[in-house]
Amino acid sequence: MYTPKDATRFWSKVDRRNPDECWYWQAGKNSDGYGSFSVKHKTLKSHKVAYTLSKGEPNGLHVLHTCDNRACCNPAHLFLGTNKDNVADRESKGRGVRLKGSSHGMSKLSFEQVKEIRERYKAGGISQQKLA
Question: Are strands 62-65 and 24-25 parallel, antiparallel or unpaired?
Fold first, then answer.
């Protein structure tokens, strides 16, 4: 997929250190902190390019970091996983997003509305059907 020229250009933007250290992406990053590399009119995440150049195509799998450093391109720190593996890895490292209450995109009621409904129900005299 990548030409030798692409590979040379890519690795020139990586601060390669000792094999066990993170190799930092030195060029542009996206808003999530992942390195961005443009090739053939596509912008790709640098760690995915590093994996592909070093180990081959991920074939639809996610490229995950053992080091949890989004700017790292060290192939020794990269491994493949399914979407389920990616989610489990994210959760195990405490990076999961937990939107609750009215912050959740599917929320229909505000905290104040829920509080009022509960108070009215506790006060009695009104059915759940009428409250709804």
Answer: unpaired
